[in-house]
C-alpha cells in the first residue's frame, strides 16, 4: 500500500473528502506552476521572461500596490534588466522595459503603442464626462477654425501642441517666467513670509518654517498666479492648500481608490473644481494675467461643445501638472543643499551674483545659463527623486528588445532605475554628488543619453520641462540670495517616499518634514 493510500485508509471518513480536495488543488497548483513558469517559457522564448508568482490571477497585484518600485526592482533582479520582462497584476500582464536602448524602441512604436487611453483614464477619474472624453478623442477636420490642425488630430492630440506653443522657449514662455519672477519678487520677503500660514515661529529678524510645507505652499501659489492670474486666488484664497491636500493623496487617484476610502482626497478635489467652475464663469477678458494656453484650450473645448463642468476638469489637471513636481523639486534642491552638501551654497552665491542688482533678479538668462553649480544641483536632485514611469497600451503585437509583447497588455518604463546606473552616473549613485554632472570632468554628459529620463520621452516627453527648470531656478536663486538658511533641531536627511506612485517627483513621508530658519542676509 502506498503512503498516500495508507494515510487515506487511516483517516476518519469525514476527513477523506477534505484531504482529497486539498490534494487535488495541490496537484492542480503544482501543474499550473510547472506549466506557467517552466514549460511555457521554454515553448515561447520569444515572450518576455516573467517573475513567477504563487497565486493564480492575483499575481503580484498586492505587492505592486504596496510599492511598485520594490516590485520592479525584485523582478529586474530575477529576470535581468537587459531584456524586457513581465509581471502579472490581477490577471493582466505588465511588460517592463528597463534597458535604456529598448526605451527608444518603445518611443518609436507610436502606431502600435498608445498613451491616449491613460490620458483619457486620468481625466475621466477626475470627473471628465464620458461624452466629453469621446468627443475629445475624435479626430477633427484639418481646416477647422481656431488652433491650426494640419494633421486632422483630435482635441486631445491638439492639447499637446498647445502646450508646446505656450511652454517652449519663446515669447509665450517669457510671459510665464516674468509672472513667476514678479510673484516671487514680491513674496520672498521676510514680512510676506511671516504673514503666511505655514510659519512655525518668527521674530523681527528671522522666521522658521517646515521646509516641505512652506516651499509647497509658495511654489503652488506662484504657479497658480503665473498661469491663471489673480482671479483664481480671489475666488478661493486657500486653493493652494486644497491642492496640496489633494496632491499628497493623489496616489489614490492613480490607484483608482473607491469613494469610501478616499473621502479627503475627493473633498479637496471637489473644492478645487468649484473654484474652476466659478473661474470659468468670469468672462475671459476679465481674467487678468491668465496665459494664452488656458484661453486657447477653453475656446477649442467650447468649439466642440464641451461644457464648463468638463473644462473645469481640464483646468484642474493643468493646475496639478504645473505644481505637483515643481514644488517637490524646489524642496529637494534646498533639502540636499542643507543636509548633504552645504559647502555648495557659497559657490552658488558667488555664481548667481552676476544675475542680480542688489536683491533684484534682473538677468534670468544668466541664472539659466551661467550658474553651473546651481544647474548641477538641479540635475542631481532630479536624478535622485524622479520616480516617474511611462505607460503604453499595446494596440497590436509589438517587438521590443527582441521580445514579443501581446495586444491588450501594457508596457511600463520605470525611469527611476535608469537614474541609478553607476556605469552612466559614476560612483556612489545612491547619494548626492552634483559634480557627476560636471561636463568639464571628462566623464561625458549623462543628460545626453537614453538613461536620462526625468521628463519621460518620446511623444509624451514633458512639455513643461523648460518652465519647470526656469521657475525652480528663479525660486532657489532668490531664496539663496535673500536669506541664510539654517536647519533647526536634530534632523537627518529626508528620503524620497518612493513607495507611492506620483506623476514625476517623489515627496517625503508625512512625518519627515523639518524646520528651517530663514534669516535675511
Ligand atoms: C520638475 C518638474 C517636472 C517633472 C519631473 C515632470 C515630469 C514629467 C514626465 C515624466 C512626463 C511624462 C509622463 C509619461 O510619459 O507618461 C511628463 C509629462 C507632462 N508634463 Fe511634466 N514634469 C514636470 C513639470 C511640468 C510642468 C511645470 C508642466 C506644466 C504644464 C508639465 C506638463 C506636462 C504635460 C502636459 C505632460 C504630458 C505630455 C504629453 O503627453 O503630451 N510638467 N512630465
Automatic annotation (TrEMBL):
Chain sites annotated for binding heme: 462
Cited CDD domains: CYP7_CYP8-like
GO molecular function: heme binding; iron ion binding; oxidoreductase activity, acting on paired donors, with incorporation or reduction of molecular oxygen; steroid hydroxylase activity
Cofactor: heme
SUPFAM superfamilies xref list: Cytochrome P450
Keywords linked to the UniProt accession: Heme, Iron, Membrane, Metal-binding, Monooxygenase, Oxidoreductase, Transmembrane, Transmembrane helix
Keyword Heme set for record: yes
TM stretches of this protein: 15-35
InterPro entries (UniProt xref): CYP450_sterol_14alpha_dmase (IPR050529), Cyt_P450 (IPR001128), Cyt_P450_E_grp-IV (IPR002403), Cyt_P450_sf (IPR036396)
PANTHER family in the record: 24-HYDROXYCHOLESTEROL 7-ALPHA-HYDROXYLASE, CYTOCHROME P450 FAMILY 7
Family affiliation: Belongs to the cytochrome P450 family.
Full protein name: Cytochrome P450
Organism the protein comes from: Bionectria ochroleuca (Gliocladium roseum)
